[in-house]
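Minutes, project check-in
Item: structure for the 447-residue chain
Input as provided by the requester:
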Amino acid sequence: MPVQSHAATSQIKIILDGQELNLPNEVEVVNARNNIMIPIRVVAENLKFNVNWDQKTQNINIQQGSKAIALTVGKQEATVGNSSVSLNMAPQIIKNTVVVPIRFVSEGMGLKVDWNNKEKIVTLASTTSPPSSPANGSQNDSITNLVHEINYLNNQLVVSLDREVTPVITTLKNPDRIVVDFPSTNFGNMSQPVPVESMGKLDTGYIPNLTEVRYSLFKNDPAQVRIVIELNNVSSVNYNQQYDAGKFILDLKMVNDPTPATPIGGSSKKIVVIDPGHGGSDPGTTSITNRYEKQFNLALALKVQAILLQEPEIEVVMTRETDVYPTRPERVKLANDLNADVFVSIHGNSVSSAPQVTGTETFYYQRANSKELANIVHKHLVKAMGLKDRGVKNGSLEVIRETTMPAVLLEVGFLSNKSDEEAMMSESVQTKAAQAIVDGIKEYLKL
């Protein structure tokens, strides 16, 4: 299961009307799942608001003259005056302090908010005019929206944002491009921040009809994020856009040119999909030395990819090559759409309550060909890792249950076990494990 955590970012400063707020030692600004959360009492009291906290109901009531704001810890809805306001994240208690998203501070308390990702500074400016009511669906254009994650999978561009914004979408020719411009938007707490005047690119692997997806801070004042989807061998393209649960989704439907480039699988090569488990917002489990499973999964998977790229009879496709999070259905769809010959998902195991548990185990789901693949890969992997052989097991796990080809999920070792983790994080052991996985795949495919 994904581990939900709050990463303290104590270096973050709050500047209110030009003055840095002195935060008590126990009070922190935190980054919770890519949402900057700030202590509401500190901000409200510095603005001369009256703050009342009800420990029993966990309600916060903030009053300034006739203006009243009511929040409840854990509830993703607040009241501003007579209006109900949806929050992009519920208030939380961190170290005995209630923290709320900076977006609510701007919309609910009438402050202009800016976030300097490079310097880690939250700037708040009080205004004399009341803010527009978010209950009416209007947007305060003085607030800089933030992009936290950009993904492209299964012909969908998915952008995680602080708040809903309507982008300007343009199609261009020579080469064919779809340009998506987000007004009043900057980059937030992304895993790979993009400096001004620089450009980032998504590692999309091989996707038919796609040349690349790139993104940049196109303008600085006012901020504007631009994402460009460059297409290849497309005669026409249609798209639908929607906003769902903090994500802007652009769904593309493309028609190939009459003479498209040869797609993957068009030759006699065997298609092998390698799936580094978890990633991005889903770190997986945490090791005994507080390292994320997603990091181990990706490191080993990239070594497997590097070896498979040298195999002339194999075409390797990765579900991810960076710290992003394709959903499980997206991973399944990728493999099924490619009609892959083999699917291998790489994971690390954990039983934090029993750190003595050790060993390597491999899962398949019901199909005889998956069981055969599991037995062969497991044999090679156990020998390479040198850990306890926990066997091959039938398990109803989505990525191996819903895929239609021979599919296995490898639990390479236990990150909760000190000696297992030491081996799993070793470059030399990872290289041996990667070669073992490749040897197992080749033996199954009779190559």
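Outcome recorded: The longest strand covers residues 210-220.
No further action items on this chain.
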